[in-house]
Design goal:
CATH superfamily of the domain at 1-113: STAS domain
Strand order of the largest sheet: 1-2-3-4-5
Bound molecules: zinc ion
CATH class of the domain at 1-113: Alpha Beta
Number of helices: 6
Number of strands: 8
Strand content: 25-35%
CATH topology of the domain at 1-113: Transcription Regulator spoIIAA
Order of helices and strands: EEHEHEHEEEHEHH
Structural class: alpha/beta
Shape: globular
CATH architecture of the domain at 1-113: 2-Layer Sandwich
């Protein structure tokens, strides 16, 4: 995103979401971090991404902690701008992003979703942790997907349990075209 005022401190209207871009051949990877609210610069970002000429654009949304309604609106506009990208990918969608994928029509735009972050809780020590789940070739059966992604607790080693309703958390898989 705009880096022109990098010398200044954070001010009230500066974006709370940052975008780190890394180019590898035909692929441009964009790592989004922070909070997407009315101070976002997603449309500027979309413009920059389009002008990069990259054939594949991979948006890593694993560190998007929160997105509000204005952020959702601008996100959808960004995805609309990126519809012409040959291969648009959303990876490591954070819990906040998954909520939107499940509830907001058009949130994914033309992107294919390769992986999401998912919540787990430990029944033994009550620790919570987040794991990455590959969804691209997973089929649309949430219970099977959760069963195939067993993990152990980082704190005590016990088996952790998926901490949401699979059918609800992976609802977006059913809407894939
Ligand atoms: Zn534990």
């Amino acid at each position: 995103m705009a880096s022109g005022d990098a010398a200044g401190g954070m001010t009230a209207d500066q974006p709370q979401v940052s975008a780190a871009l890394e180019r590898r051949g035909d692929t441009l990877e964009v790592k989004l971090s922070g909070i997407i609210d009315e101070r976002n610069a997603l449309l500027d970002l979309a413009e920059e991404l389009k002008q990069s000429g990259a054939r594949r654009i991979v948006i890593d949304a694993g560190d998007v902690r929160r997105i509000n309604s204005v952020g959702v609106r601008d996100w959808i506009l960004m995805m609309r701008e990126l519809e012409s990208v040959e291969d648009l990918v959303l990876q490591r969608c954070s819990l906040a992003i998954v909520v939107q994928l499940n509830t907001v029509h058009n949130f994914r735009g033309s992107a294919r979703i390769t992986s999401v972050m998912a919540p787990y809780a430990c029944p033994a020590c009550e620790a919570e942790q987040v794991e990455t789940i590959d969804v691209e070739n997973a089929g649309a059966e949430p219970e099977a997907l959760v069963a195939a992604n067993a993990h152990t607790c980082n704190a005590c080693g016990a088996s952790v349990e998926f901490d949401d309703l699979p059918d609800r958390y992976f609802m977006f898989l059913g809407s894939a075209s």
